[in-house]
Design a protein that fits this description.
Length: 328
């Protein structure tokens, strides 16, 4: 998609400090000089990045600015090692890159379930048990734990849109995008409003989200390079789902759909293998009877629904349908 569209977030992170070792000396009845039995401290918690194929954007992390892993516990008596601090695991979409505050690469997530330690927890200190020797039988010291790391982590995700909007200029694509996402496309009431693809992150239930792109208007003949065609058709190649938008006041809904499909076929027949959904926009102007008439004529092999961005009709149903298709 728009290669310079990046989902970007800064987090302040701190891994845990290591626990201190124990300098305990063993004391028992009838044993004059118990030896050293101090255990080691536990390591501090790591800050870990983990791939999650169910995530599409970094949106869920917008609400988490500070992440701090637990410190390791101190060593105990009888050579008991302190517990390690709990790690903090940050779940991110596949394709997320982590950098430090200087922009230096820290790691990249390329597959589901993959884990990258961004900041290691501090090592626990050794207990006095480790420092005994023939000449020094009761060492009374142990190591402190090492401190954790602290700093900013910058997460970046180059976004490929999950849903591409296909429609003639003025089908209401920019308006739909501005209503369902935080994108602020320039909207004007004339053909070719959109000269570059607008991308928006669409928030969904339970902090989930997906990406929708408005691919600039295709006009008849775009595949032969007329109008703005080619530059934009290229963008569609990378969407996983195509949402056709045809306005309610179109003279011929079916013909308009067929022209759009034909443009895609001429340009690259593989585009037709993608899942398609058809939405009739501006449908607040239709009554039930008109909707039924239109539905009768629409192609039976793809799901269709009626929406109005302005009147906010059918938008949740549309999001549900898109989400379910993306996650099939």
């Amino acid at each position: 998609m728009h290669s310079n569209f990046v989902d970007y977030i800064k987090l302040n992170c701190k891994s845990g400090n290591g626990g201190a070792g124990s300098a305990h000396l063993h004391r028992e009845k009838f044993i004059e000089k118990g030896g050293p039995d101090g255990g080691d401290g536990g390591r501090g918690g790591h800050i870990i990045l983990k791939g999650n194929a169910q995530l599409w954007t970094l949106l869920p992390l917008r609400y988490t600015r500070h992440l701090k892993a637990d410190n390791g516990k101190n060593g105990g008596t009888s050579r008991a090692t302190g517990a390690d601090g709990n790690d903090v695991v940050i779940e991110v979409p596949i394709g997320t890159i982590a950098k430090d505050e200087n922009g230096d690469f820290m790691g990249e997530i390329t597959e589901d379930g993959q884990q990258v330690i961004l900041m290691e927890g501090g090592k626990g200190g050794l207990g006095n048990w480790h420092f005994r020797s023939p000449t020094r039988q009761t060492p009374r010291y142990a190591q402190p734990g090492l401190p954790g790391l602290e700093g900013q982590v910058i997460l970046e995700l180059k976004i490929l849109a999950d849903v591409g909007l296909v429609g003639f200029p003025n089908a209401g694509k920019s308006t739909l995008l501005s209503v369902v996402s935080a994108a602020k496309p320039k909207i004007a009431d004339y053909a070719f409003t959109t000269l570059t693809p607008n991308l928006g992150i669409v928030p969904y239930r339970n902090h989930q989200s997906f990406v929708m792109a408005d691919i600039p208007g295709i006009i008849e003949g775009a595949a032969e390079g007329k109008g703005l065609g080619h530059r934009f058709l290229r963008h569609i190649e990378r969407n996983s789902l195509l949402l056709f938008l045809i306005p309610a006041d179109s003279k011929d809904h079916v013909k308009e759909y067929e022209i759009l499909v034909n443009e895609l076929r001429e340009y690259n027949p593989e585009l037709l293998d993608k899942e398609r959904i058809l939405a009739i926009s501006k449908s607040d102007m239709l009554d039930d009877e008109l909707k039924e008439e239109i539905s009768e004529l629409l192609p039976k092999d793809i799901p269709h629904l009626y929406i109005s961005s302005v009147a906010q009709l059918g938008l949740m149903e549309l999001k549900d349908l898109l989400w379910n298709k993306l996650n099939d």
